[in-house]
What we know:
By secondary structure, the protein is α+β, with helices and mostly antiparallel strands. Helix content is about 50%, strand content about 20%. The protein folds into 2 domains: about 25-175, Sandwich (Jelly Rolls); about 185-285, Orthogonal Bundle (Arc Repressor Mutant, subunit A), CATH 1.10.10.60. It contains 10 helices and 9 strands. The chain has a 5-stranded antiparallel beta sheet with strand order 1-8-3-6-9. The radius of gyration is 30 Å and the shape is elongated. Keywords: Activator, DNA-binding, Transcription, Transcription regulation.
Amino acid sequence: xxxxxxxxxxxxxxxxxxxxxxxxxxxxxxxxxxxxxxxxxxxxxxxxxxxxxxxxxxxxxxxxxxxxxxxxxxxxxxxxxxxxxxxxxxxxxxxxxxxxxxxxxxxxxxxxxxxxxxxxxxxxxxxxxxxxxxxxxxxxxxxxxxxxxxxxxxxxxxxxxxxxxxxxxxxxxxxxxxxxxxxxxxxxxxxxxxxxxxxxxxxxxxxxxxxxxxxxxxxxxxxxxxxxxxxxxxxxxxxxxxxxxxxxxxxxxxxxxxxxxxxxxxxxxxxxxxxxxxxxxxxxx
Length: 285
C-alpha cells in the first residue's frame, strides 16, 4: 500500500500528503471543526473520499447537486468532483480518503467498481456493521501494529464490496421500476384502445391505473416519447386515417364514429394533428 507517496493535499493543508500510506482516515469533526464546521467548495485531482455520517446534520453539495442528511449515510466523492460540506457541531462520523492508485487496484477485482460516481447510500439496516467497519478502520489506521497495511486493505476491500452491492441493488431497483413503468404503459394503451372513442380525460385513465396524472404523463414521455393525451390523440388520428382511406364513410360519418359531436370539430382536430384537412388527406391517398 506504500508503493508510492501521493503529493496531493487535503482541505486546509499547506503541506503535502500527511502520511506514507495511500489512505488517510480521520473523524469528520477533526477537520471541519478547524474551519467553522464548513468545508467550502473544492476538488481533489487524484483523491477519492468516502464519508460515513453516523449522526448529526450534514449539508452536502457535489457538482452543484445539494442534499441534506439527518440520518446515517455513506457519501462517495470521486476525484475531480467539486464538493462542499456544512456540518452541525454534534456531527459524528469518519472521512476515508483514498489515493487513485489504490482505488484502481482494489476496484479491479469488482465487476462494477463502486467509486466512479458521486452517490449517497443511507445506512438503514446496515448501521451496526458500518459502525463496526469504520470504527475498526479508524483504530487500525491510528495504530502501527503488525499486519497494519494488510488489515487496512482488508477493511477497505470490505467497504468496497458493501458499496458495490448497494450499487447493484440500486440497478436492480431501477430495472424493477422500469418494468413496472412498461406494465403501466401497456395497461394504459389497452385502456386507450377500449375507450378512445369516448374522449375520456387523462385523469380518468390515471385513476383507472391507480396513478396520478403527473406520474402517468412522466411514464408516457419516458417510455413512449409523448404525453398521455398525445397518445390518445394519436390513436384517434390513426383510426380517422384508416376510415378516410379504406371506407366510403363521409367526413361527418367518420367524425360521428369517433365520438366527435360535430364534423367541424373533427376537421379542426384532424388538421391540428396532421397538417391537412380530412378531405385533402383522403384525396392524397
